[in-house]
Amino acid sequence: MQGSRTGSDAEGDEGCGVHREFLALERELSVFLRRARASSGEMAREVHPELEPAAYGLLVRLDEAGTQRATELAGYFGVGKATMSRQLRALEDLGLVARAPDPADGRASLVRLTDEGRSRFRHVRDARRARYVRKLADWDRAEVAELARLLHQFNASAES
Hints:
The chain is mainly alpha-helical. It is built from seven helices and three strands. It has helices at residues 7-15, 20-47, 53-65, 70-77, 81-93, 115-135, 141-159, and strands at residues 68-69, 97-102, 105-113. A three-stranded antiparallel β-sheet has the order 1-3-2. α2 (20-47) crosses α3 and α4 packs across α5.
């Protein structure tokens, strides 16, 4: 019958046979990532007006993992040494991180948050967490935990 489509025809139109669940996932992740990028920019400016949005993630990593080699950071973020060096230099110029020679290898440097960098970052992170609490106030704690678990599972599978 013309004008009538079977389920497989409709799926073909929406993604060459890709299941609706994956199309919905793609749509929701796109919205989430767009909002996350905008949020990272806002949070970066709250830490320091001259902080690049991409550099905010470096502060997150250094706060979570502690002192790291620049090469470890580059590997973690999947960027080249030159890109990482440029970002670290900008953070250093803002007084948010400090670099020191690695005692185990004088050619490498260890990067850490400065006291000022840690203080500024944690102030912004705590404010962000308070926003999450407000936005998810009507969610059951088990739902929040499940969302965190699923996002962790998704991120872990993306790394392998």
